[in-house]
Design brief:
382 residues, mainly beta, 5-stranded antiparallel β-sheet, 4 helices, 12% helix
């Protein structure tokens, strides 16, 4: 009887481990990422407290256009959490492998998912061990010189199982500071812009196939021993290449999931309707393109409905309006940002000749801290 109890406890322990190892949903959409790089959503830092290097973030999406792009951005400076994640093409699920450097950032402040012209359905976090790697090229190893003159040729037979969502793993050694990889098709053209100078870490790097276009380039090479890919770069030795694919299963428990704000269908005159949070860490902003302002006059005003968020440090809530270009100069033309305090009432933005010309030309950026923006309406003042 005692042995049976021990066995049951062991089985239960193993089952718990299996559940923890599944792909786990951390954000549930839908969240529309519209045109013009104006939309984004913050994936909260709390999801990464127990994450480790090698774990993978996956963004499942739909409604992508041929020109769709995405980004994983650091709320601190709006740059990519790593250089390869600042801007890339999208044609299916896209992924990011967490490194030690990325974890330092996302554990503190999370990250934004941005870009244009697609809709996020869900975001998941998966242990790295749920992805199986198959080595498809074993050399001979190729030393990449500092002048970018060397490259390795990989035959088409290496990529017969490759599909959108898979990762191409470059295993490297003898890596110098500033090492970079260049992944090209058989014509010596880069597969896509992100593969022109992909940063190579101490053991290599992973490039995820997020779009059909790179696959089509590889397929043009034919089959078998024909060269389909060339991998070059500088200051590292390419030892082998693998394809990593997800082989696990999804945990459907949504107990601790982060849910995207409800999306609304815009009514006539509305430029925004939803729940856009501007945290007290100054990481929030909202871009409005120039399009809705083309017929505006100085009689028109923007009315913003928002709710203050109390600060643990007792700091106030403020908002400002900037040009949607360059250094985000204040819309008023002032050298310094003009901050308006938020007290819970609507904020009204009026236009003069100068500010109207700016919004018609480049649009508008709304930034600030400590509030939730729920509605923006463009109306003609009576």
């Amino acid at each position: 009887m005692a042995m049976k109890r021990v066995l049951l406890l062991f089985v239960s322990f193993v089952c718990v481990l299996c559940v923890n190892a599944d792909e786990r949903t951390i954000l549930l959409g839908p969240k529309t990422i519209g045109p013009g790089w104006k939309d984004n959503i913050l994936v909260e830092a709390r999801h990464f407290e127990k994450a480790k290097a090698g774990d993978v973030v996956t963004v499942y999406n739909d409604n992508a256009k041929r020109t769709t792009q995405a980004a994983f951005q650091d709320p601190k400076d709006w740059q990519g959490v790593a250089s390869e994640y600042g801007c890339f093409n999208v044609g299916g699920p896209f992924r990011m492998t967490l490194t030690d450097d990325i974890l330092l950032k996302v554990r503190e402040r999370g990250f934004y998912i941005g870009g244009h012209d697609y809709r996020i359905l869900r975001v998941t976090l998966t242990p790295g061990e749920e992805f199986r790697e198959t080595i498809v090229w074993r050399g001979p190893a190729k030393q990449m010189k500092s002048d970018w003159s060397e490259s390795a040729e990989l035959p088409a037979s290496c990529f017969k199982t490759l599909k959108v969502g898979d990762g191409l793993v470059l295993h490297a050694s003898k890596v110098k500071e500033g090492a970079a990889a260049k992944i090209m098709d058989f014509t010596w053209n880069v597969l896509e812009s992100v593969t022109d100078g992909l940063p190579v870490g101490p053991t290599g790097c992973t490039y995820y196939i997020n779009d059909d276009a790179p696959l089509l380039k590889l397929q043009l090479a034919g089959t078998g021993s024909n060269t389909a890919m060339r991998i070059g770069g500088k200051d590292y030795r390419l030892d082998k290449v693998g394809i990593v694919q997800f082989v696990g299963k999804r945990d459907e428990d949504l107990t601790d999931v982060q849910r995207a704000p409800k999306e609304y269908k815009l009514e006539p005159g509305e430029l925004f309707h939803g729940e856009k949070t501007f945290p007290h860490d100054w990481s929030g902003n909202l871009r409005l393109t120039a399009e809705p302002f083309q017929e505006c006059t100085e009689n028109d005003v923007l009315i913003l409905s928002l709710t203050p968020i109390p600060s643990p440090k007792g700091e106030g809530s403020v908002i400002s309006f900037r040009e949607n270009k360059g250094k985000w100069l204040d819309l008023s033309g002032s050298a310094e940002p003009q901050w308006q305090k938020i007290d819970g009432t609507d904020v009204v933005l009026t236009f003069d000749e100068q500010s109207l010309d700016k919004v018609k030309t480049s649009g508008l950026v709304i930034t600030g801290k400590g509030f939730v923006l729920t509605r923006i309406e463009l109306i003609t003042a009576q």
